[in-house]
C-alpha cells in the first residue's frame, strides 16, 4: 500500500482540526446529555465510515476491508474502556460537567501513545517476523484471561499509579472547576482532576497493549492501523456519555471481545507460515461475534433502563467554593504581593494531600 506523504499530513491535519472543533464546541463546562452524545457519536462514526469508504475506493476492497476490520475491533474494545472510565469517574465523584475535559485530553494522549506503539510495532514486525508468534500468543492469553476475569472490575483505590501520584504530587482536596493545576500560597498543586486524567491515560495504555496487536492481526499496513485506531478513538468521549449508564446491560460483551482476541490471535499465528485467512472472512467473523454478544446481552437485560454507577456515600473530594477559586493565584507567573500576603494570612487548606 503506497501512501503518499501528503495523505499522512492530511489525515493528521484533519485529526487536529476535528479535535479543535470538539474542544471549541465543549469549551464551557456542562453536563452532556444523551441526545447530544448520540449526535456526536453519529458524527464520529460517519467520519470513520466515510474514511473507510475512501480507502476502499482509492486502494481497493482488500485494504478497505482491512481498515473496517481494524475499526470494528478498536470500536468494540472501546466499550470495555468506557466501562473502566465510568468506574474511575464514579470512584473520584467527578462532576459530570468536568468529565468531557478529562476525556478530551485522555483521547489526545491516547492518540500520541498509540502512534508511538504502532510505529514501534511496525518496525519490530518488519525486522523480526517471528515476533508475530509472540503477539499471537499474547492475544490468545489475553482472550483467555478476559473470559476468566469477566466479572472482575478495576478498583481505583488499589491502583499503584494512583498511590504514587498521591505520594509525590501535592494535591488539593477539591475540584477547582476544570483546572488540572492551581497555585496557592506560591505552591503549584494538582487538583483531583489531574489524578483522574493520569489514571485514564494509564488505563488506555493498558488497553492499547491489547488492541494494537489485535489490529496488526488483520492488517500489516501502519497507515490502516493508525487511522482505524484514530477514527475509532475520536468518538470515545461521545460513546462514553451515550453508554456509561447502559454498561450494566452489556453482560456478554466481554466474552465476545475475548473471543475476538482469540480469533485474531489464531489468525495471526496461522498467517506467519501456514495459512492466510482472507480479510473478508475475518471481518465477517469479528462482526458476527460482536453482533451476537450485543444482541444476547440486550435480550437478556431487556426492560432495564439507564442506571448510573453507585457513587460513594462519602465522596473522596469536594467541589471548591467560588471564594476559594477567586482567591487562587495565577498558575504561571507571580501573584501580586497583596494577594500573596492575603493568602498567607488565610493559612493553608486543611484538606491538602501530599
UniProtKB/TrEMBL annotation:
Cross-referenced InterPro entries: Integral_membrane_TerC (IPR005496), Integral_membrane_TerC_rswitch (IPR022369)
Region described as Disordered: 330-354
Biased composition (Basic and acidic residues): 343-354
UniProt similarity note: Belongs to the TerC family.
Protein name per its UniProtKB record: Tellurite resistance protein TerC
Localization, UniProt: Membrane
Keywords of this entry: Membrane, Transmembrane, Transmembrane helix
Mode of membrane association: Multi-pass membrane protein
Species the sequence originates in: Blastococcus colisei
Pfam families (alphabetical): TerC
Lineage: superkingdom: Bacteria
Spans traversing the lipid bilayer: 6-25, 37-56, 76-94, 101-119, 125-144, 193-217, 223-243, 250-270, 276-298
Cross-referenced PANTHER family: MEMBRANE BOUND PREDICTED REDOX MODULATOR, THYLAKOID MEMBRANE PROTEIN TERC, CHLOROPLASTIC
Transmembrane in keyword set: yes
Record-level GO cellular component terms: membrane
Keyword presence, Ribonucleoprotein: no
Amino acid at each position: 500500500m503506497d501512501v503518499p506523504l501528503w495523505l499522512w499530513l492530511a489525515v493528521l491535519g484533519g485529526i487536529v482540526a476535528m479535535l479543535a472543533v470538539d474542544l471549541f464546541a465543549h469549551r464551557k463546562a456542562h453536563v452532556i446529555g444523551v441526545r447530544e452524545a448520540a449526535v456526536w457519536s453519529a458524527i464520529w462514526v460517519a467520519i470513520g465510515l466515510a474514511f473507510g469508504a475512501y480507502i476502499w475506493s482509492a486502494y481497493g476492497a482488500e485494504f478497505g476491508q482491512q481498515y473496517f476490520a481494524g475499526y470494528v475491533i478498536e470500536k468494540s474494545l472501546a466499550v470495555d474502556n468506557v466501562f473502566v472510565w465510568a468506574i474511575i469517574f464514579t470512584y473520584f465523584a467527578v462532576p459530570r460537567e468536568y468529565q468531557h475535559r478529562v476525556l478530551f485530553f485522555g483521547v489526545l494522549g491516547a492518540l500520541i501513545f498509540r502512534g508511538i506503539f504502532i510505529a514501534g510495532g511496525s518496525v519490530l514486525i518488519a525486522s523480526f517476523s517471528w515476533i508475530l508468534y509472540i503477539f499471537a500468543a499474547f492475544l490468545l492469553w489475553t482472550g483467555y484471561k478476559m473470559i476468566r476475569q469477566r466479572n472482575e472490575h478495576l478498583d481505583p483505590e488499589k491502583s499503584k499509579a494512583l498511590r504514587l501520584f498521591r505520594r509525590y504530587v501535592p494535591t488539593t482536596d477539591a475540584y477547582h472547576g476544570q483546572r488540572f493545576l492551581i497555585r496557592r500560597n506560591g505552591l503549584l498543586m494538582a487538583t483531583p482532576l489531574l489524578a483522574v486524567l493520569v489514571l485514564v491515560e494509564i488505563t488506555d495504555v493498558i488497553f492499547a497493549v491489547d488492541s494494537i496487536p489485535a489490529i496488526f492481526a488483520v492488517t500489516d499496513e501502519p497507515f490502516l492501523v493508525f487511522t482505524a485506531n484514530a477514527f475509532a478513538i475520536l468518538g470515545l468521549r461521545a460513546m462514553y456519555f451515550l453508554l456509561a449508564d447502559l454498561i450494566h446491560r452489556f453482560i456478554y460483551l466481554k466474552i465476545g471481545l475475548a473471543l475476538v482476541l482469540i480469533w485474531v490471535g489464531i489468525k495471526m499465528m496461522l498467517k506467519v507460515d501456514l495459512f492466510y485467512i482472507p480479510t473478508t472472512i475475518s471481518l465477517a467473523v469479528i462482526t458476527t461475534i460482536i453482533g451476537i454478544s450485543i444482541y444476547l446481552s440486550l435480550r437478556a437485560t431487556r426492560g432495564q433502563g439507564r442506571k448510573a454507577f453507585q457513587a460513594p456515600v462519602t465522596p473522596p473530594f469536594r467541589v471548591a467554593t467560588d471564594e476559594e477559586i477567586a482567591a487562587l493565584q495565577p498558575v504561571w507567573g507571580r501573584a501580586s504581593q497583596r494577594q500573596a500576603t492575603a493568602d498567607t494570612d488565610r493559612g493553608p487548606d486543611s484538606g491538602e494531600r501530599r
